[in-house]
Write a structure and sequence with these properties.
80 residues; mainly alpha; elongated
């Protein structure tokens, strides 16, 4: 029992216990929550993009070709 009380007292004096520890835990929880929210939104956007490509494959390929052409022209102009 004496050992448990000594350990309990040592834990209180540790700098990572108390208000600092609580603030860190709160910040970590907020970051985790925001990460999961962002991940869910990105998954949803990815699903929506895939649906648009499935519904309009011709326009998707045409758009990708146009973007490739523009990038190609931009990088070609930078070289010469």
């Amino acid at each position: 029992m004496a050992q448990t009380n000594a350990t309990h007292t040592e834990n209180r004096s540790h700098p990572m216990n108390g208000p600092i520890h609580d603030r860190i835990n709160h910040s970590v929880q907020k970051i985790e929550s925001r990460y999961h929210d962002l991940r869910d939104r990105l998954d949803e956007m990815s699903d929506q993009s895939a649906q648009v490509v499935r519904n309009h494959p011709f326009y998707s390929v045409l758009g990708a070709a146009a973007v490739g052409l523009i990038f190609g022209m931009f990088f070609q102009a930078r070289r010469g």
